Amino acid sequence: MTENLNTETEAEETLRLVAQLPPPQDLTERVHQRLQDAQAIAPRRGFWSLWLPAQRLQYAGAALLVLAIAGSAWTARHTGSGTAKGQSPVQPVIQATPQGFGPASSEARPSNLKPIKVPPAPKKKPSASKVLKKRTPQPGAQAASDSKASANQ
Amino acid sequence: MEIPATSAMQPTESQSQYEGVPSAETTIAALVDEYAGTLYRVAYSVLRNSADAEDAVQETYLRVLRHRDSLAEIRDARVWLVRIVWNVVLDRKRRSKTRPETDDIADLARLLPASGLTAEERAVSAQHHAHVLRAVQQLPEKEQRVLILSAFEELSSVEIAQILGTTESTVRSRLFRARNLLSNLLSHSRSVR
Prior knowledge:
The structure holds two protein chains of two kinds.
Chain A: H1 2-19, H2 27-44, H3 53-79, H4 128-135, H5 139-152
Chain B: H1 24-47, H2 50-66, H3 77-95, H4 102-111, H5 119-138, H6 141-150, H7 157-164, H8 168-192
Helix pairs in contact in B: 1-2, 1-3, 2-3, 3-7, 4-5, 6-8, 7-8
């Protein structure tokens, strides 16, 4: 027990000696000087002087890069596609065949594809000889028609 | 919290910017004059390197300068400053964890005063101090901190509790445990030798 107490006291004596080691002589002067330097630097700092020249260059480079990207994006938007402003081109909806594979002759036609209506082609005018043929009845044909009419009566 | 107007903190007429009202800079200058030595010793007891300890003291006062607007709220400047330097020191210690401690201990043991001793006795004394410091190093961190701070005669257990951010009873129990562990370590190493 006594030995333990002695050991404790000895150990604490060592720590006390460490705690009592004198500080360097010019410590306070150096601390004062450091504080004065820090105070002298502080007021000189304006908004721009917070950045070192190298940092300023970095910021300028970054700003240029942002401007270039924004400019190119603007150009692409306004000169690229002919679509109306704010509208995106509509993608055709591909309808899946209801029963899997269709016959080879089947035609896949998108639902949004409307058939084009083609106006009927104008009739050709009949030639003069054909018109004449129609107008002048043939003698045999006239007789046959007459006999049919009398039979009906 | 308010800083008590200690003799060191009262500026001279030429120092004060406004009559009767000391500026923050004057107050800090007074704090440097009064507590720089104490802060250095606290820093040195942990870092065991004179340049590092001085750096820690300077950093402490730079932090004070940065927070000069809140100086008027500080009640006990000494404890407040020791707390700041303690945090600075622990931060530095954490960052330089890889540095070998053994050489520092041997150097420190040689630095400790041994007046009135012969050369041989000095060597034995340095060896003993180194042995004790190595044993302190082996203690758990919390106990080690309390033991180091308790070696400062100017710090009471209440103040140590304030510095470490704990209660006084915790400080006392840690100190008790630290002493027991230390004596066990030392007696064990003695029996081995």
